[in-house]
Design goal:
heterodimer; A: mainly alpha; two-stranded antiparallel sheet; 2 strands; 72% helix; B: alpha/beta; six-stranded mixed sheet; 14 helices; 16 strands; 21% strand; globular
């Protein structure tokens, strides 16, 4: 097959690896969306803007306070998460009793405002953020040159995805969370502070976006539109994986990264739409998504 | 959407009680560009600032001219740009439209301008069509075009030994036009194109495409894209060790603000062609410092072009005595000898193409760079006649 398409196997291997790296970003971002949707029933359109904010916070920490990449990897998600909690307390929490659409509209508006503010203060060209010294350089794998930083992106995202899945699906805290989604009144009757839990969950989901932003800062242009470009793809990933399915979001994220990577070799012009084509097919055949519970 | 703010110099003069002048010419300029999208930094509000500086430096009020400036965001959409241009000419009494980055919008506005007998002073767009296939007697294309960029960077890199080229092309009209122009220059200088890939626009991740370019064995990877795409591609080429391994990158359209965004560590050693750089001589430094004080960043060549084109335009209007007949003003601009503080000697050819020197720059290394905006070393310069394409007969408006 390789000869037929004129692509040597080692090139293919390289592209699969690159797809996996891009998939890492899709996975971490769609995971945050899935957590927020699965547990809060909110379609968080501000996710892309908060991802962008994560990258900008990392830049600000370095530029204004001299705080480097490693502390920023913890601090920036915390700051973005805290901002998310503020948003949840002051605005989103008022919409829980309304239709999903209101949350979507609110978060969409917030996304535009956040993006507009950053554009106003930092312009559109973007800012420079260097790869940390420890991770500069790369390894020659024979079939391709793998930058150390990209390897780190895959490792970090797998770790974060796995821990999140484990926490929600396998621990007592996760069980409380899932129970609170099913029946908040009953869980509250057992003495568990449901609003606090929901607030922290939103903060956590948003912090995941901030984390992905810091991961992206050294390799993508740090500019106000970086989230806007990604968010639509990530939503498609969540839809394909099944709205609210944690495992679905993770697996689909990596899988679509790889499919997109392969499209870039065989038919580059189509690489921007391949995910949406898959989304349309999945919606026709299995509307609840690959990993979603039947509606 | 239409931001209206007027610098009514005559009103100012009236308020301060200056006597009315013998000559009473009123001019309305519209700066039409991208104020919120990817070209907002290289044009945007900065171009309005530049136009305002030109009006001040021209001392319009002393010459009995009232100059008003309006501005609007065309959002890089031809339909939005066309509507604004129509409204400006037909309803608001605008005499000339300035800047207009994004070639598709510029081409639409060129036609509307011709119909309305206005003037288009284009600084931001790159398409050569503006003075070729779609040339109009009311068009002046001031700053650069894709052919001049290709002639600068393409020729220099091919002659320096980069014989085999691979293109990463932004998959829309501008990208293809830049690739086509550069291919012609590369082949004319004894080079060859070994491959290309059409990259969906806009793109964030270029690693797959860069790997294909790496595998092609090309000496030079030509980036036929702009803005954030170029920045991402260069950032990732450095990350994947492509430039370190000896392949060279040719950024075919890159502005000082893109280089500033990349930082010298990533951008060092890149070759690129521009019509203007702030640190070229006393004239450019003086202008740029004033611009910096108002706007907070150094001017791009597009913004500098808006300044110089506005100055030349106002001078022509003064000579003609009115801004009403757009073609007459453009004819006067073509007849003038322009010695500009920023672009040097400029002549506007009969087809509307402004001819001035173009410069090949190399981005300074992090060690060489002494400040945030200390970006370039000048490598060479080419004259306007060499840099821009020759005139087409059908566009010679001096014979029509």
């Amino acid at each position: 097959m390789f000869e037929l398409l004129g692509i040597p196997p080692q090139v293919l291997l390289g592209q699969i690896l690159l797809g996996l790296i891009n998939g890492s970003f899709y996975a971490v971002l769609s995971l945050g969306l899935a957590v927020i949707f699965g547990l809060l029933n909110i379609i968080n359109f501000a996710h892309g803007a908060l991802y962008m904010a994560g990258a900008f916070v990392a830049w600000m920490l370095l530029h204004y306070l001299g705080i480097g990449y490693w502390p920023a990897l913890i601090l920036a998600p915390l700051i973005v998460g805290a901002f998310g909690i503020l948003m949840e307390r002051t605005m989103l929490s008022r919409l829980y009793h309304l239709d999903h659409l209101y949350g979507l509209l609110l978060t969409f508006g917030l996304a535009l405002i956040i993006q507009g503010l950053f554009r106003n203060y930092y312009g559109i060209s973007g800012l420079a953020y260097q790869i940390p010294d420890l991770l500069s350089g790369g390894q020659n794998l024979g079939f391709m040159y793998l930058p150390n930083y990209r390897a780190w992106v895959v490792i970090a995202s797998v770790l974060v995805c796995f821990s999140t899945w484990f926490m929600i699906e396998k621990t007592r805290l996760g069980a409380y969370l899932r129970a609170a989604t099913e029946n908040p009144t009953l869980v509250g009757a057992f003495g568990i502070n449901v609003p606090l839990m929901i607030m922290l969950t939103y903060g956590f989901g948003v912090a995941l976006a901030g984390f992905a932003g810091v991961l992206a800062a050294p390799i993508y242009s740090v500019n106000p539109t970086m989230g806007e470009q990604l968010i639509i793809v990530v939503f498609a990933v969540v839809v394909i994986g099944g709205m609210g399915s944690i495992m679905g979001a993770i697996v689909t994220g990596y899988m679509l990264g790889i499919i997109e990577g392969l499209t870039r070799v065989f038919y580059p012009e189509g690489s921007a739409v391949v995910i949406f084509v898959i989304m349309a097919i999945v919606l026709m055949i299995k509307p609840e998504g690959l990993f979603g519970r039947p509606v | 959407m239409i931001n209206k703010f007027a610098i009514s110099t005559l009103a100012l003069a009236a308020m301060t009680g200056a006597p009315a002048m013998a000559q009473d010419i009123s001019v309305k300029l519209g700066v039409l560009n991208d104020r919120s999208g990817i070209y907002a930094d290289l044009s945007g509000e900065g171009s309005v600032v530049a136009a305002r500086m030109a009006v001040e430096d021209f001392k319009a009020a002393d010459k009995g001219m009232t100059v008003e400036i309006v501005s609007a965001d065309h959002q890089n959409k031809p339909d939005v740009g066309s509507n604004i241009a129509r409204q400006w000419y037909d309803v608001d009494g605008v005499n000339a439209i300035l800047d207009i980055p994004t070639s598709s919008v510029a081409l639409a506005v060129a036609n509307i301008t011709h119909e309305a007998n206005g003037v288009m002073l284009n600084s931001g767009a790159g398409s050569t069509s503006l003075t070729r296939e779609q040339c109009r007697p009311t068009t002046v294309h001031w700053t650069y075009d894709t052919a001049a960029l290709a002639n600068g960077t393409g020729a220099a890199m091919t002659n320096a030994g980069g014989k085999k080229w691979f293109f990463l092309t932004a998959d829309y009209a501008f990208g293809h036009s830049l690739e086509e122009n550069t291919t012609a220059v590369v082949e004319a200088n004894g080079g060859e194109v070994v491959g290309q890939v059409n990259v969906p626009f806009p793109a964030q991740d270029f690693s797959s495409f860069l790997l294909q370019a790496q595998g092609s064995g090309a000496d030079v990877i030509g980036l036929a894209n702009a803005g954030g795409d170029t920045v991402n591609a260069i950032k990732q080429a450095s990350e994947f060790g492509i430039t370190q391994a000896g392949q060279k990158l040719a950024a075919l359209l890159m502005f000082a603000n893109d280089v500033h965004a990349l930082g010298p560590q990533t951008a060092q050693g890149l070759s690129l062609t521009e019509a203007f750089y702030w640190d070229q001589n006393d004239g450019t430094r003086e202008f740029s410092q004033r611009f910096m004080d108002t706007h907070g960043s150094m001017p791009s060549m597009v913004q500098a072009g808006v300044y110089s084109a506005t100055l030349a335009y106002l001078e022509a209007v003064q000579t003609v005595g009115s801004a009403e007949d757009g073609k007459a003003v453009v004819d006067q601009m073509k007849a003038m000898d322009i010695d500009d503080a920023l672009f040097g000697k400029v002549t506007i050819r009969a087809d509307g193409r402004a001819l001035h020197d173009m410069y090949l720059f190399e981005v300074k290394t992090a060690e060489e760079s002494t400040g945030e905006w200390d970006l370039y070393n000048q490598i060479s310069s080419v004259t306007g006649e060499e840099a821009f394409l020759p005139m087409l007969d059908e566009c010679d408006f001096s014979k029509q």
